[in-house]
Amino acid sequence: MVLGDYSSKKSDDFCEDVCGQGSRVGTRLRCIIRGLDVKTWMTLLVVLPLLTLGIYLHYQKVTYFLRPLWESPPKPFNVLPHYYQENVSMEHQCRLHGWGVRETPRRVFDAVLFNNEVEMLKIRWRELSPYVDEFVLLESNSTFTGLIKPFIFQRNKDKFEFVKSRLTYGRLGGRFRKGENPFVEEAYQRVAVDRLLKVAGIKDDDLLIMSDVDEIPSGHTVDLLRWCDDIPPVLHLQLRNYLYSYEFYQDNGSWRASVHRYQQGKTRYTHYRQSDLLLADSGWHCSFCFRRISEFVFKMRAYSHSDRIRFLHFLNPKRIQDVICQGADLFDMLPEEYTFRELIGKMGNIPHSHSAVHLPAYLLNHADEYKYLLPGNCVRESE
Q: Tag placement on the chain: N or C end, fewer CB within 10 Å?
């Protein structure tokens, strides 16, 4: 007799006595199930499903919270001090920055890709109008995500008569490639802006402002750069970061806006980092600063990060209104930071601000028209 055979038979007999007759696999499974206690059953039937559901619902939050473990912060900018006071001469301002002063100002071109930000565009162009020689605007009948859209600027061009003689306007047919990465369509439209700038007559050493419509350089910043000599070829602008309105100040971390001394064949209209130089406190970035809830929904579905709409209820108008007044995140995301200290410090809702100091002049001069952008007026129009 072999000991191994004996032990195996003995075990089978025991399981059959306990769990009844049946196949070896079925018998063992019944033995395992009958041997589980209440805590184990709770873990299998309640805890594990809830854990799985939690990971599914908050996967994005988990990955953003762990971001400091797998991604290092980008190289820091060399931040240049910014000097300005309305009673200080331009010659002295240039010298404070270490630059000379020109006999005549450079020409300035302001180029934007337009989606649906009619109100913000008006504030932008009114702020920059005294200092810009040519406004360049391109709009497409396609969003970055391939959705069909009307030519909204064309419909509202009567609101911009004040720049009509200085405007180079272009329309572009979308490519409508289903399932394509939105950044591909965005790049396609930015290349079209390069072509439109040549139509507008830009020349070497003209100043070119590259920024989204809601990234507004202050007028005095542009005036400084057009009058000062020996400024850097490419200079990023540090903008005050706001969300939904100028009531919710986030930080001064907006840097994508830039000013270039144009060079034929070298300068490209882009929206990424092109220099290590950042001019401090140079304007305002007011993201998702719309008058109507429908405009929020449109942008959420249209811009390059539309993949952040993980659930359809994110587009619910009542939810969007609640999020705006709370200063919360439209996509229920954690802050995009590279250190745990900064991430944890920015978690939660943005605090309300009561300051409306140093905002675009046109906004304050027309406060009744743009009341929704000022402190204490978070409720938006339903349509």
A: N
Model pLDDT for residues 18-31, shown as the tens digit of each residue: 445 445 655 665 66
What range defines the domain where residue 231 resides? 78-287
Residue for token digits 């064949």? 265
Confirm whether 351 is domain-assigned: no
Q: What is the CA radius of gyration of the chain?
A: 29
Burial 341-367 (b: 16+ CB within 10 A, else e): ebbeeeeeebeeeeeeeebbebbeeee
Exposure on the CB side of residue 285, measured as CA atoms within 13 A: 20
Residue ranges for the chain with pLDDT beneath 70: 1-59, 61, 304-306, 383
DSSP H or E run through 11:
helix 3-19
Q: In this structure, is residue 123 part of a structural domain?
A: yes
Q: Could you report the per-residue pLDDT of 347-363, keeping only the tens digit for each?
A: 889 999 999 999 999 99
* Contact of 192 with 138, CB cutoff 8 Å: yes
pTM: 0.83
Report yes or no on 339 lying in a domain. no
Q: Reduced to 3 DSSP states, what percent helix, strand and coil does the chain have, rounded to the nearest 5?
A: 40, 15, 40
Distance in angstroms (rounded) separating the CA atoms of residues 295 and 118: 10
DSSP 177: -
Burial class (CB in 10 A: 0-12, 13-18, 19+), 127: buried
Please check whether residue 312 lies inside any domain of the structure. no
On whether the CB atoms of residues 141 and 174 are closer than 8 A, the answer is yes
